[in-house]
Amino acid sequence: MTHASPMPASAAAETAHILSRLGVDPAILSGGTLVARSPITGEETARLVEISADDAKVAIDKAHQAYLTWRKVPAPRRGELIRLLGEELRAAKAELGRLVTLEAGKVTSEGLGEVQEMIDICDYAVGLSRQLFGLTIATERAEHRMMETWHPLGVVGVISAFNFPVAVWSWNAALAIVCGDAVVWKPSEKTPLTAIAVQALFERAAARFGAEAPAGLSTLLIGGREIGEVLVDHPRVPLVSATGSTAMGRKVGPKLAARFARAVLELGGNNAAIIAPTADLDLTLRGVAFSAMGTAGQRCTTLRRLFVHESVYDAFLPRLKAAYASVTVGDPRRDGVLVGPLIDQAAYAAMETALADAKAAGGVVSGGDRVSVDPADQAYYVRPALVEMGEQADVVLRETFAPILYVMKYKTFEEAVILQNDAPQGLSSSIFTNDMREAERFVSDEGSDCGIANVNLGPSGAEIGGAFGGEKETGGGREAGSDAWKAYMRRATNTLNYGRTLPLAQGVKFDV
Ligand code: NAD
Q: Looking at residues 77-86, what average pLDDT do you find?
């Protein structure tokens, strides 16, 4: 282990203080079986009571009742509730952002950034609440009018991953609630406290909104994957939006399909960047370093595979290595730290396994060693790893949720695109080039096959306005902006006859 500077105050004490300021009853933080920890120090922050499967079913039924009432509230009025939620989030931004840092280990700016995304989607959804419109369609029948209408769907189930502990819920909930749905949320068992804080803020907004917001409109289920399964199996949940690993998606997707429920699946990513001969290497270095090392490699859009043209490889790689060697790993609450902790011991073990597999496949590893941050022996800090690979071996084609960047050489643009598209997960991608033809080809139908394709910026991060995600392996589920709202509603076609006859098919006759 190498050593970094010591820690500030106890993460557990700070967590309890913030939760109480956000209106969470301190009594709920003890006496249960779900142990919450801060990855910053590894210390325990709470022991929460987990909901039983039976109680979860009752809560879902109650959410269904809430939906039956809520769907009658006019959509722009529903938007008012989300506007109030946005106000609560603005007022609590510093504290909730800090809680994200304490519970998920994100650096301060990213913790705050996640809350800002919640605020942004609230603003977006308020506008959307006045734009839930369908088309009027020219009909082939005389004296008829045909139109498309959009109706609320019912209870929307949200299952979220540890690495976006609050934003994912808001991308779903802000839209679902203006669409007239109720929301039931099963957060990651690794980040339950941020979810409890968000629920407290929602309840503040609902209290200000008044009695029109029914009890059960937003419900939180604290528990592990078996509670997620209850949500997936419940017949009163017509849509489940699940964010997490592809392993989780493989279990959830078929179950939803079996009962003809909708799925929005936002799963893993094994994202690549191509560095072309004409790339601006200064800009590229910043883009690559940030997207590969930020959030300690624990973003679905983290850069994990880098294809460098052979003509710039020798100029670029030493600079990238120097950037890797100089980055500060440590307590994410400190200024100047880019790389905080891994979420837990299992994440560290997965990283070690991947690096061993890479070495066995001929990879040359720099970095990747554990960093000790006193007195956090139960925490897992690592120096980001760069692995030079001769070819895209199996280990490169799987997502390891840790800061590992595999670097490979390529000769032609066509070869680089084939390599980049070879990963089944295919969430996000980018090319660094000043060649206009290459840039256009990369975003064309014969270029990147990912849900996100960028030019001259890294693959990590996305804006809510453009809709988030779109992993090719799942068929491209999307939350947040663009036309994602349609997933949270059902479409009907209505035809109205204002004539005095009913045209029948040619030759059809019957007596009336
Ligand atoms: P995970 O798959 O272990 O867990 C995610 C959630 O799914 C948790 O709430 C968990 O309890 C639940 N779950 C697990 N198995 C389930 C089952 N069979 N039925 C119902 N629920 C189940 O993922 P994680 O480790 O928390 O998060 C990291 C993963 O999430 C990475 O693969 C990352 O790429 C992905 N991710 C994707 C996006 C995206 O938008 N595409 C965003 C964030 C994270």
A: 98
Query: Which tokens is 44 given?
Result: 């325990």
Quote the ligand 1 centre to 308 CA distance (angstroms).
31
Q: How far is CA 150 from CA 122, 132, 133, 277, 485, in A?
A: 20, 7, 7, 49, 10
CB 224, CB 189: distance < 8 Å: yes
pLDDT cut 70: percent of the chain above it: 95
- 140 φ, ψ (degrees, to nearest 5): -80, -10
Give the predicted TM-score (pTM) of the model. 0.94
Q: Which atom of ligand 1 is the closest one to the Cα of 468? A: 40
Strands 218-220 and 239-243, by their bridges, are unpaired
Task: Count other Cβ atoms within 10 Å, centred on residue 22.
Answer: 19
Within 179-329, where are the H helices? 192-209, 225-233, 246-258, 281-293, 310-326
Average pLDDT over residues 322-327: 95
- Please give the number of the atom of ligand 1 that sits closest to the Cα of 266: 41
Q: Residue 407 corresponds to which tokens in the numbers above?
A: 């670097």
Bigger pLDDT: 338 vs 509: 338
Q: How confident is the model at residue 424 (pLDDT cuts 50, 70, 90)?
A: confident
Distance 243 CA to ligand 1 centre (A): 5
Q: How far apart are CA 174 and CA 78, in angstroms?
A: 10
**Contact status, residue 256 vs residue 232, Cβ threshold 8 Å:** yes
Half-sphere exposure of 208 (CA within 13 A, CB side): 14
Q: How far apart are CA 298 and CA 403, in angstroms?
A: 7
Give the pLDDT of residue 6: 46
**Mean pLDDT across the stretch 224-234?**
98
CB–CB of 469/266 below 8 Å?
A: yes
Using DSSP, state whether 106 is helix, strand or coil: coil
Tokens representing 388 are: 């030079």
Tell me the torsion sign for CA atoms 419, 422, 423, 426. Answer: positive
Which residue, by CA, sits nearest to atom 22 of ligand 1? Answer: 225
Structure tokens at 37: 């920890």
Q: Identify the burial level of 233 via C-beta atoms within 10 angstroms of its C-beta, where 0-12 means exposed, 13-18 middle and 19 or more buried.
A: middle
In whole angstroms, give the CA distance from residue 122 to residue 204.
15
Q: How far apart are CA 376 and CA 43, in angstroms?
A: 8
CA distance 46 to 31: 9
**Is 266 an active-site residue?**
yes
**Domains detected in the chain:** 10-268+471-492 (3.40.605.10), 271-455 (3.40.309.10)
The letter for the amino acid at 346 is: A
pLDDT in tens, 254-301: 999 999 999 999 988 899 999 999 999 999 999 999 999 999 999 999
Within 10 angstroms of residue 356's Cβ, the number of other Cβ atoms is 13
Distance 510 CA to ligand 1 centre (A): 58
Would you call 300 a catalytic residue per the annotation?
yes
DSSP state at residue 376: -
How far is the C-alpha of 405 from the C-alpha of 399, rounded, in Å? 11
